[in-house]
Amino acid sequence: MQQQIERVALAIALAKRVLVITGAGLSADSGLPTYRGLGGLYNGHTAEGLSIEAALSGPMLQRDPALCWKYLAELGRACLGARANAGHLAIAELQQLKPQCWLLTQNIDGYHRAAGSPPERLIEIHGELAPLFCQSCGAEDAELAEHLERPLPPRCRQCGGILRPPVVLFEEMLPEAAIASLYAELGKGFDLVLSVGTSASFPYIIEPVLRTREGGGLTVEINPGRTDLSDEVDVRLQGRALDVLPELLSHISAQGNCK
Ligand code: APR
After folding, report:
1. CATH 3.40.50.1220 fits 2-32+84-129+173-254, yes or no
2. What tens digit of pLDDT does each residue of 172-225 get?
3. Ligand 1 pocket, mutate which of 168, 199, 205, 222 (most atoms under 8 A from CB)
4. Least crowded by CB within 10 Å, which of 10, 19, 214, 255?
5. What number of other Cβ atoms are within 10 A of residue 124's Cβ?
6. Which long-range contacts (CB under 8 A, 24 or more apart) does 239-246 make?
7. Which atom of ligand 1 is least distant from the CA of 241?
8. What pLDDT shows up at residue 259?
9. CATH architecture of the region 35-81+133-164
């Protein structure tokens, strides 16, 4: 593994354009549940006998907002109760070192912003948990934590409408601006892509890796387990993001030439 880390560190130091893709596995080291695999949220069913995908879906928020908000609140409490870890900080440091290092995250916990990743090079493809907004009048409401202490679903102070977070629920469309930004950057090509802590369950996560490989860039996966990408990437760093990312950054900084 050490040799592979040094190989990847050198490739990152020499790369101009880098894409880091992150998933729930990165925040697993902060204590948040992942969605699939061991202990994953999706492995079980809710108390109502629903799949979590059904409970956390756009149609459910309309049909039974109290039920949907029961599970949104669980996610919200988990995110508010934990914080960014050394893996998030290492990615933020990499983005400071490399002006053309972009970050595509599926995570809604907001930890990349908290860790200092530049928002202008952060693509939150599944949105974020805050600030809430009113589905009726559009008013913004930044008090997620306070609403989680009150009866659910949270109501708009202006019009009494039901509030929701700016996340992509199941059966909802991805944010157009995020998609446009992703494909604009993909069009410029990447010299290297790092897939960190994701099961690569979606085409818009797999495609950037395959396009980087087709363009002659280096493809790297950081994950203790195997995924659909594991046999596609050039280098598999089989370990936890919390352990591998800081180690990788310590080698890159040692390389010096990072422009
Ligand atoms: N470090 C790195 N990877 C880890 C760690 C860790 N400490 N712990 C677990 N993993 C890996 C698992 O092996 C798995 O491959 O993280 C991955 C988590 O996969 P998922 O739970 O499927 O999470 P993710 O890929 O982010 O899911 C994508 O699915 O339902 C949607 O909106 C949800 O954003 C989520 C999306």
Report:
1. yes
2. 999 999 999 999 999 999 999 999 999 999 999 999 999 999 999 999 999 999
3. 199
4. 214
5. 23
6. 239/1, 240/29, 241/22, 241/25, 241/26, 241/29, 241/87, 241/196, 241/197, 242/29, 242/85, 242/86, 242/87, 244/5, 245/86, 245/87, 245/90, 245/91, 245/196, 246/86, 246/87, 246/89, 246/90
7. 1
8. 47
9. 2-Layer Sandwich (3.30)
* Closest listed residue to residue 191, CA positions, set 72, 125, 70, 100: 100
Residue-wise pLDDT tens digits, 120-146 = 999 999 999 999 999 999 999 999 999
Share of the chain above pLDDT 70, in %: 95
What's at 166, amino acid-wise?
A: P
Please, what is the average pLDDT of the chain? 94
The Å distance, Cα 42 to ligand 1 centre, comes to 11
Nearest CA to ligand 1 atom 2: 197
Q: Is the pLDDT of residue 44 over 90?
A: no
Give the global pTM: 0.95
